[in-house]
Amino acid sequence: MPRTARIVLPNYPHHVVQRGHNKQVVFAAANDFEHYLADLQELKTAFDVKVYAFCLMTNHVYLLLAPGDSASGLGQLMKSLAGRMTRRRNKLEGRSGTLWESRYKSSVVQTDTYLLACSRYIELNPMRAKIVQRAPDYPWSSLHLRFNESPVDNWLDESPALNELGTTPTERLARYASFMEQEIPSSELQLLRGALQRGQLTGNARFTDEVEEITGLRITQRTRGRPTK
Protein backbone atom coordinates (compact mmCIF):
# COMPACT_ATOMS: atom_id res chain seq x y z
CA MET A 1 0.00 0.00 0.00
CA PRO A 2 1.51 3.41 -0.95
CA ARG A 3 2.25 5.80 1.84
CA THR A 4 0.16 8.90 2.31
CA ALA A 5 2.20 12.04 1.66
CA ARG A 6 2.99 13.72 4.96
CA ILE A 7 1.92 17.35 5.22
CA VAL A 8 4.35 19.52 7.19
CA LEU A 9 3.88 23.30 7.28
CA PRO A 10 6.24 25.96 8.60
CA ASN A 11 5.04 27.87 11.66
CA TYR A 12 2.11 25.48 12.28
CA PRO A 13 1.82 23.10 15.25
CA HIS A 14 2.09 19.36 14.57
CA HIS A 15 0.93 16.47 16.74
CA VAL A 16 3.64 13.80 16.46
CA VAL A 17 3.98 10.23 17.70
CA GLN A 18 6.95 7.88 17.31
CA ARG A 19 6.87 4.30 18.56
CA GLY A 20 9.47 1.71 19.32
CA HIS A 21 10.02 -0.93 16.64
CA ASN A 22 7.58 -3.80 17.24
CA LYS A 23 6.50 -1.96 20.42
CA GLN A 24 9.88 -2.63 22.02
CA VAL A 25 10.94 -0.66 25.09
CA VAL A 26 12.73 2.58 24.22
CA PHE A 27 13.11 4.06 27.70
CA ALA A 28 14.31 1.36 30.10
CA ALA A 29 15.59 3.60 32.90
CA ALA A 30 15.37 7.18 34.15
CA ASN A 31 18.61 8.04 32.38
CA ASP A 32 17.04 7.18 29.03
CA PHE A 33 14.20 9.64 29.59
CA GLU A 34 16.64 12.29 30.82
CA HIS A 35 18.93 11.94 27.79
CA TYR A 36 16.01 12.17 25.35
CA LEU A 37 14.70 15.35 27.00
CA ALA A 38 18.17 16.89 27.08
CA ASP A 39 18.49 16.13 23.37
CA LEU A 40 15.05 17.60 22.69
CA GLN A 41 15.93 20.78 24.54
CA GLU A 42 19.19 21.11 22.59
CA LEU A 43 17.91 20.15 19.16
CA LYS A 44 14.78 22.30 19.21
CA THR A 45 17.08 25.31 19.16
CA ALA A 46 19.41 23.83 16.55
CA PHE A 47 16.57 23.12 14.11
CA ASP A 48 14.32 26.08 15.05
CA VAL A 49 11.39 23.98 16.28
CA LYS A 50 9.11 25.04 19.12
CA VAL A 51 8.10 22.42 21.71
CA TYR A 52 4.61 23.07 23.10
CA ALA A 53 4.01 19.72 24.83
CA PHE A 54 5.50 16.24 25.21
CA CYS A 55 4.97 12.94 26.95
CA LEU A 56 7.51 10.11 26.97
CA MET A 57 6.05 6.68 27.59
CA THR A 58 8.02 3.43 27.87
CA ASN A 59 7.83 2.51 24.19
CA HIS A 60 6.65 5.68 22.44
CA VAL A 61 6.72 9.47 22.54
CA TYR A 62 4.06 12.11 21.92
CA LEU A 63 5.18 15.58 20.91
CA LEU A 64 3.47 18.85 19.98
CA LEU A 65 5.95 20.69 17.76
CA ALA A 66 5.97 23.75 15.53
CA PRO A 67 8.77 24.14 12.97
CA GLY A 68 9.94 27.66 12.18
CA ASP A 69 10.20 29.18 8.73
CA SER A 70 11.66 25.95 7.34
CA ALA A 71 9.26 22.99 7.48
CA SER A 72 12.25 20.64 7.10
CA GLY A 73 13.25 21.41 10.69
CA LEU A 74 10.59 19.02 11.99
CA GLY A 75 11.94 16.03 10.10
CA GLN A 76 15.53 16.94 10.97
CA LEU A 77 14.64 17.15 14.65
CA MET A 78 12.85 13.78 14.66
CA LYS A 79 15.67 12.10 12.74
CA SER A 80 18.31 13.43 15.12
CA LEU A 81 16.33 12.52 18.24
CA ALA A 82 15.76 8.98 16.97
CA GLY A 83 19.36 8.54 15.88
CA ARG A 84 20.82 9.66 19.18
CA MET A 85 18.53 7.43 21.19
CA THR A 86 19.21 4.44 18.95
CA ARG A 87 22.98 4.83 19.27
CA ARG A 88 22.67 5.19 23.04
CA ARG A 89 20.55 2.07 23.53
CA ASN A 90 22.60 0.00 21.10
CA LYS A 91 25.80 0.94 22.92
CA LEU A 92 24.31 0.15 26.34
CA GLU A 93 22.97 -3.21 25.20
CA GLY A 94 25.85 -4.19 22.89
CA ARG A 95 23.54 -4.57 19.93
CA SER A 96 22.83 -3.11 16.52
CA GLY A 97 19.72 -2.44 14.53
CA THR A 98 16.72 -0.19 14.66
CA LEU A 99 15.04 1.07 17.81
CA TRP A 100 12.10 2.95 16.34
CA GLU A 101 9.44 2.42 13.74
CA SER A 102 10.82 3.70 10.46
CA ARG A 103 8.32 6.51 10.10
CA TYR A 104 6.92 8.80 12.75
CA LYS A 105 3.31 9.92 12.38
CA SER A 106 2.21 13.54 12.39
CA SER A 107 -0.86 15.72 12.01
CA VAL A 108 -0.99 19.47 11.42
CA VAL A 109 -3.12 21.05 14.16
CA GLN A 110 -5.53 23.96 13.83
CA THR A 111 -4.27 26.46 16.41
CA ASP A 112 -7.40 28.31 17.41
CA THR A 113 -9.65 25.25 17.74
CA TYR A 114 -7.59 22.17 18.60
CA LEU A 115 -4.22 23.18 20.01
CA LEU A 116 -5.21 23.20 23.70
CA ALA A 117 -7.15 19.96 23.25
CA CYS A 118 -4.12 18.33 21.64
CA SER A 119 -1.84 19.48 24.46
CA ARG A 120 -4.27 18.08 27.02
CA TYR A 121 -4.50 14.77 25.14
CA ILE A 122 -0.71 14.41 25.19
CA GLU A 123 -0.23 15.35 28.83
CA LEU A 124 -3.02 13.11 30.15
CA ASN A 125 -1.55 9.96 28.58
CA PRO A 126 -0.04 8.68 31.86
CA MET A 127 -3.44 8.96 33.57
CA ARG A 128 -5.25 7.15 30.76
CA ALA A 129 -2.61 4.41 31.02
CA LYS A 130 -3.22 4.32 34.81
CA ILE A 131 0.46 4.94 35.56
CA VAL A 132 -0.32 7.88 37.86
CA GLN A 133 -3.45 9.22 39.54
CA ARG A 134 -2.48 12.85 38.95
CA ALA A 135 -1.05 13.82 35.58
CA PRO A 136 1.43 16.43 36.97
CA ASP A 137 3.06 13.66 39.02
CA TYR A 138 4.35 11.87 35.91
CA PRO A 139 7.96 13.08 35.62
CA TRP A 140 8.41 12.64 31.86
CA SER A 141 5.77 15.01 30.52
CA SER A 142 5.52 18.71 29.82
CA LEU A 143 2.75 19.01 32.40
CA HIS A 144 5.22 18.09 35.13
CA LEU A 145 7.59 20.72 33.74
CA ARG A 146 4.86 23.38 33.72
CA PHE A 147 3.74 22.87 37.31
CA ASN A 148 6.79 21.54 39.15
CA GLU A 149 9.71 23.54 37.79
CA SER A 150 10.58 27.19 38.26
CA PRO A 151 10.00 29.49 35.27
CA VAL A 152 13.78 29.65 34.81
CA ASP A 153 14.00 25.85 34.38
CA ASN A 154 10.91 25.51 32.20
CA TRP A 155 12.30 25.31 28.64
CA LEU A 156 8.92 24.76 26.95
CA ASP A 157 7.74 27.21 24.35
CA GLU A 158 4.40 28.78 25.22
CA SER A 159 1.82 27.99 22.55
CA PRO A 160 -0.43 30.71 21.09
CA ALA A 161 -3.47 28.95 22.57
CA LEU A 162 -1.97 28.86 26.06
CA ASN A 163 -0.91 32.47 25.75
CA GLU A 164 -4.53 33.49 25.21
CA LEU A 165 -5.67 32.03 28.53
CA GLY A 166 -4.53 35.04 30.56
CA THR A 167 -2.35 38.10 30.85
CA THR A 168 0.15 36.63 33.33
CA PRO A 169 1.90 33.24 33.56
CA THR A 170 0.13 32.50 36.86
CA GLU A 171 -3.29 33.22 35.38
CA ARG A 172 -2.58 31.16 32.28
CA LEU A 173 -1.41 28.16 34.30
CA ALA A 174 -4.46 28.35 36.60
CA ARG A 175 -6.85 28.35 33.65
CA TYR A 176 -4.93 25.58 31.93
CA ALA A 177 -5.10 23.48 35.11
CA SER A 178 -8.87 23.99 35.18
CA PHE A 179 -9.06 22.98 31.50
CA MET A 180 -7.07 19.81 32.24
CA GLU A 181 -9.60 18.79 34.90
CA GLN A 182 -12.59 18.94 32.57
CA GLU A 183 -14.04 15.66 31.37
CA ILE A 184 -12.91 14.94 27.82
CA PRO A 185 -15.65 13.77 25.43
CA SER A 186 -14.94 10.42 23.78
CA SER A 187 -15.57 12.08 20.42
CA GLU A 188 -12.64 14.41 21.03
CA LEU A 189 -10.33 11.52 21.88
CA GLN A 190 -11.39 9.64 18.77
CA LEU A 191 -10.87 12.69 16.58
CA LEU A 192 -7.37 13.42 17.90
CA ARG A 193 -6.29 9.77 17.72
CA GLY A 194 -7.77 9.24 14.28
CA ALA A 195 -6.23 12.33 12.73
CA LEU A 196 -2.79 11.38 14.04
CA GLN A 197 -2.93 7.69 13.11
CA ARG A 198 -4.18 8.41 9.59
CA GLY A 199 -1.99 11.45 9.01
CA GLN A 200 -5.02 13.69 8.53
CA LEU A 201 -5.35 17.31 9.56
CA THR A 202 -6.53 18.02 13.09
CA GLY A 203 -8.97 20.74 12.19
CA ASN A 204 -12.33 21.71 10.76
CA ALA A 205 -13.42 22.28 7.16
CA ARG A 206 -12.23 25.89 7.19
CA PHE A 207 -8.77 24.74 8.25
CA THR A 208 -8.73 22.10 5.53
CA ASP A 209 -9.52 24.76 2.94
CA GLU A 210 -6.71 26.91 4.35
CA VAL A 211 -4.17 24.10 4.10
CA GLU A 212 -5.32 23.17 0.60
CA GLU A 213 -4.73 26.76 -0.49
CA ILE A 214 -1.26 26.80 1.08
CA THR A 215 -0.12 23.44 -0.29
CA GLY A 216 -2.00 23.29 -3.57
CA LEU A 217 -3.04 19.74 -2.61
CA ARG A 218 -6.55 18.31 -2.59
CA ILE A 219 -7.19 16.87 0.87
CA THR A 220 -9.94 14.31 0.48
CA GLN A 221 -9.97 12.95 4.04
CA ARG A 222 -11.39 15.52 6.38
CA THR A 223 -11.78 15.24 10.12
CA ARG A 224 -15.05 16.40 11.62
CA GLY A 225 -16.21 18.03 14.79
CA ARG A 226 -14.55 20.26 17.33
CA PRO A 227 -13.50 19.87 20.94
CA THR A 228 -15.86 20.84 23.71
CA LYS A 229 -14.86 24.10 25.36
UniProtKB/TrEMBL annotation:
Report the transmembrane regions from the record.
Answer: none
Gene Ontology molecular function: DNA binding; transposase activity
Origin superkingdom: Bacteria
SUPFAM superfamilies (UniProt xref):
Transposase IS200-like (SSF143422)
Domain Transposase IS200-like positions: 9-125
Q: What is the protein name for this chain?
A: Transposase
Give the SMART domains listed for this entry.
Answer: Y1_Tnp
- What does the record list as GO biological process? DNA transposition
